[in-house]
Amino acid sequence: MNMLTALIAASLTLASASTDLIGERKVSLQDGEALVSTKRIEGKLGRPYTVELRVKCGAANTDWTKLPVVDSEAVCDVKPQSAKLSADGKNISILIRETDAEAFNEATKKTAGEASGALVPQCQKSAREFLFNIEKYCR
Hints:
By secondary structure, the chain is of the alpha+beta class. 18% of the residues lie in helices and 41% in strands. It has one domain (18-133). It has two helices and seven strands. The protein has a four-stranded antiparallel sheet with strand order 1-2-3-4. The protein has a three-stranded antiparallel sheet with strand order 5-6-7, with no helix packed on it.
């Protein structure tokens, strides 16, 4: 194996190791379908999960991987299977937990110097609904 091939193989291995698919949920829309994907992103302090939204309009049988991500949000924690269409059909909701920034800031104030670099932000105890507005898709 030459050096270039080895470098390409190593970078592909690193790229696939840094993003792990945690869960997906398809949600039926009035005139299409949405896919809500949750991925774990290594190295994102306090917000290690990304929730992505892809939308497919009409009855087209398109490969989801070929559709662009139309919206995304980085969060501290997420319940992937909670994704659902709102009663009015204008939003897709999903349960998330945000980073507890207040507790993290207090902990860093109490920790001296270099030791504060070892602190890791924690998620808030309570979950909330995050909304992806889907009104602009599939008109």
